[in-house]
Design a protein that fits this description.
Radius of gyration: 21 Å
CATH architecture of the largest domain: 3-Layer(aba) Sandwich
Helix content: 25-40%
Order of helices and strands: HHEEEEEEEHEHEEEHEHEEHEHEEHH
Distance between the termini: 33 Å
Mean pLDDT: 96
Structural class: alpha+beta
Low-confidence stretches: 1-5
CATH superfamily of the largest domain: Zn peptidases
Strand order of the largest sheet: 1-2-12-3-13-16-14-15
Shape: globular
Number of domains: 2
Number of helices: 10
Number of strands: 17
Largest sheet: 8 strands, mixed
CATH topology of the largest domain: Aminopeptidase
């Protein structure tokens, strides 16, 4: 078994950090500190993705997670002191009302709540239809636009969901924000840490990308800079183990191991790399799942298209309630993902990568 002793403090720190799309600086700082402690060469691209390298011989292997989380941006401040906002990433309107947020202005975070009408004063028609994002507002406890501006808030400032990383009654279960995709960032770093200690027959690049939620942008620039021979993106997988979810749309279950994606909207993975992942899981007795995600793309899809093309694969950790303020994961799936990816990357020597890259 390759798995080392993985602590949760690093993952907790990543998940609690503010880092909505386009504002990933705090997350990058945490990653940089961890990667410097491990002892790596670190560079960034011009969008802000962070790239750490260990090893100077063999094929180039890229393991990536995106640093950004979905959130909002201040669009305007009303004369009465309420904030209208725009979404950063994909939100379902129904999950927003009455949720706490933090607006990160020039004077630090300001707590607010997404306002809603009490049911007592809703008309029959209002009760029947959901409120749309464009009709919502954030209440920061102000009574004028001047008061909001005194708080250090202005249009363009990021707005971050509030949901601290917390263990549940079942100690394997954790609730919090930004599992999508601080989990992927942590897997990339822990894989690099593990293989730096154990040894690996390749040049390994651990990458935290930016702006995935608005078009996989950092994956393209970071992928171009690394120019890998093989690439992995680590993600969350949509959990289908809650009431009302059709298993034909989401098969993953918490506690049943990481998910090897057979396809998403952006990628049909390299088949030899996919099979290597499945074979490795079976060899080590690591429980795993497979699924198809037709409704979303991943960084693996964008990396696969840089330069002459890169054999790529996406591996995910099952997560409930993604693209909302709060998600739920089983930490054992996270541990197993690190173990699996460490074992796969350890096999990627010159000969194996050449066989993966061979065109049929």
């Amino acid at each position: 078994m390759l798995l080392m002793n993985v602590g949760l403090s690093f993952l907790e720190k990543l998940c609690n950090a503010p880092g909505v799309t386009g504002f990933e600086g705090d997350v990058q700082t945490i990653l940089r500190a961890e990667l410097e402690e491990i002892g790596t060469e670190i560079v960034t691209d011009n969008l802000g993705s962070i790239i750490a390298k260990v090893g100077n011989k063999g094929p180039k292997v890229m393991v990536a997670g995106h640093m950004d989380e979905i959130g909002f941006m201040v669009r305007l401040i009303t004369k009465e002191g309420f904030i209208r906002f725009s979404a950063l990433g994909g939100w379902w309107d129904q999950v927003l009302l009455s949720q706490r947020v933090a607006v990160y202005g020039s004077k630090g975070p300001v707590i607010g709540v997404i306002g809603s009408k009490p049911p007592h004063i809703l008309s029959p028609d209002e009760r029947k239809k959901p409120v749309e994002k464009n009709d919502m507002f954030i209440d920061v406890g102000a009574f004028s636009d001047e008061e909001v501006e005194e708080m250090g808030i202005r249009p363009g400032d990021p707005i971050v969901p509030i949901s601290p990383f917390t263990s549940m009654a079942n100690k394997d279960m954790y609730v919090g924000k930004a599992f999508d995709n601080r989990v992927g960032c942590a897997i990339a770093v822990e894989t690099l840490r593990n293989l730096k200690e154990k040894g690996h027959p390749n040049q390994l690049f651990a990458v935290g990308t930016v702006q995935e939620e608005v078009g996989l942008r950092g994956a393209q620039t970071a992928g171009t800079l690394v120019d890998p021979d093989v690439a992995f993106a680590f993600e969350v997988a949509i959990a289908g183990d809650t009431p009302g979810v059709d298993e034909n749309k989401a098969r993953a279950k918490l506690g049943k191991g990481p998910v090897i994606f057979l396809m998403d909207r952006s990628l049909i993975p390299n088949l030899r790399l996919r099979d290597l992942a499945i074979e490795t899981a079976k060899e080590l007795g690591i429980e795993y799942q497979v699924d198809i995600m037709e409704g979303g793309g991943t960084d693996a899809g964008r990396i696969s298209m840089v330069h002459r093309g890169v054999p790529s694969l996406c591996i995910g950790v099952p997560t409930r309630y993604i693209h909302s303020h709060t998600g739920v994961i089983n930490i054992q799936d996270y541990y197993k993902a690190i173990e699996l990816t460490s074992a796969i990357v350890a096999k990627l020597d010159e000969e194996t990568v050449a066989s993966i890259k061979k065109v049929w």
